[in-house]
Amino acid sequence: MIHDGHGRTVSYIRLSVTDRCNLKCFYCRTDGEECFIDHSNILSYEEMLRLVQAAQTMDVTKLRLTGGEPFVRRDFLAFLGMLREECPGLDVRITTNGTLLGGKVPALKHLGIQRINISLDTLKPERFAHVTGRDFHDRVLQAIDDCLHYGLTVKINAVAMKGINDDEIAAFTEFAKTRPVDVRFIEFMPIGGCSHWKKEYALPARDIIAAVSAVADITPVPKHAINDGPARIYEIKDGLGRIGVISAMSDHFCDTCNRLRITSDGRLRTCLFSDKEYRLRPILRSPRLGNEALLRVMRLATQHKPLGYKLLEKRLLGNSVCSKVMSSIGG
Ligand SMILES: Nc1nc2c(ncn2[C@@H]2O[C@H](COP(=O)(O)OP(=O)(O)OP(=O)(O)O)[C@@H](O)[C@H]2O)c(=O)[nH]1
Ligand SMILES: C[S@@+](CC[C@H](N)C(=O)[O-])C[C@H]1O[C@@H](n2cnc3c(N)ncnc32)[C@H](O)[C@@H]1O
Ligand code: SF4
Ligand code: SF4
Question: What reactions does this protein catalyze (predicted)?
């Protein structure tokens, strides 16, 4: 088990397989012009597999595949197959916008995917189109139903924004009451050079929980396992599902942070809020350097993993805590 300089252990990698996405959620893709990483700089699946295998030797047990939109990348299912074959025992999860899942859920099940996080900020179709730029609300609802039908564990991610979807907390609570899903409200984070974040959008977790409590009887669930995510989860009395909050802004969870991020062009980021990156691609592509060199950098990076909330307090970039957009970091 590898420890960082603040005594935390790393057991979880978030790997972005692409920076491309078929949606343009206004809180995430703030890059005005379409500006994607050049194909030649995107890691091949073989290179990604090498990174994952190296991470496993550092006792990483959980891998989340994210993006951009992971299902936009060609042969993504084949990559899942490679991971299943080459990394048995690894807990592989996916975070997706759900819009491209149509017809793929049986294959996911077959490939051993048991858990999936699907983003859905609103239960209103017109609002969905307004927030994401595409009219795909039906597809996401269908994807959630398909995943539940095939027995996958589903978490819903909803970025909570005052003036945008704060009037839907009761509706989402009902959604979680009537389906076996965790609906997690995420506080809007000021990520990306020209982030659209404004304090007027801020909806702190305590206000969300107060609004949920007004319509349901909820009880906090204690965290148990090292790989429990950053969400604080609440059971709903007589509900099939649960409600959660990811309070990255108002009540940070940096002291239990157990994760590293790798972008699709092979840059290791030790904190969502820090622009400091460690370039793994040149090592992967060097004919001279092997896994030992990769591991050396990964260990060194981990030692210097910061406490993100301190960067948030400083907010050196004005509105934003870091310059890279969320869709190219992976969330
Ligand atoms: N600040 C911060 N936000 C995070 C971190 N990990 C995840 N998030 C945010 O939480 C939201 C949901 O992330 P997911 O991709 O669903 O991953 P997760 O919450 O770790 O998932 P689980 O392991 O299923 O709980 C996204 O907006 C992420 O950016 C983190 O370490 N720090
Ligand atoms: C960057 S997306 C990538 C995966 C996939 N495209 C999706 O939407 O689930 C991962 C998560 O980051 C969240 N996210 C994006 N921008 C955010 C922001 N500024 N603040 C909080 N969460 C954000 C999204 O809602 C999503 O749940
Ligand atoms: S990466 Fe995810 S959150 Fe960002 S624009 Fe695409 S679908 Fe929306
Ligand atoms: S802000 Fe950085 S240190 Fe804090 S929980 Fe997120 S990734 Fe970890």
Answer: GTP + AH2 + S-adenosyl-L-methionine = (8S)-3',8-cyclo-7,8-dihydroguanosine 5'-triphosphate + 5'-deoxyadenosine + L-methionine + A + H(+)
Low-confidence ranges of the chain (pLDDT < 70): 32-33, 226-227, 316-318
- 279 labelled as ligand-binding? no
**How far does Cα 272 stand from its chain's mean position?**
10
Q: What is the dihedral of CA 246, 227, 87, 149, to 10 degrees?
A: -60
| Per CATH, domain 12-329 is 3.20.20.70 | yes
Q: Which pTM value belongs to this model? A: 0.97
Nearest listed ligand to the Cα of residue 302: 4
Confidence at residue 196, expressed as pLDDT on a 0 to 100 scale: 87
Q: Which ligand is nearest to the CA of 190?
A: 2
- Which residue's C-alpha comes closest to atom 4 of ligand 4? 254
Q: Is the CB of 272 under 6 A from ligand 4?
A: yes
Query: How buried is 52 (Cβ within 10 angstroms: 0-12 exposed, 13-18 middle, 19+ buried)?
Result: buried
The Cα-based distances of 112 to 57, 82, 85, 93, 115 in angstroms read 22, 11, 10, 10, 9
* Contact criterion met (CB below 8 Å) for 116 and 66: no
Task: Give the dihedral of Cα atoms 50, 54, 55, 61; nearest 10 deg.
Answer: 90
Could you give the count of Cα atoms lying within 13 Å of 27 in the half-sphere of its Cβ? 24
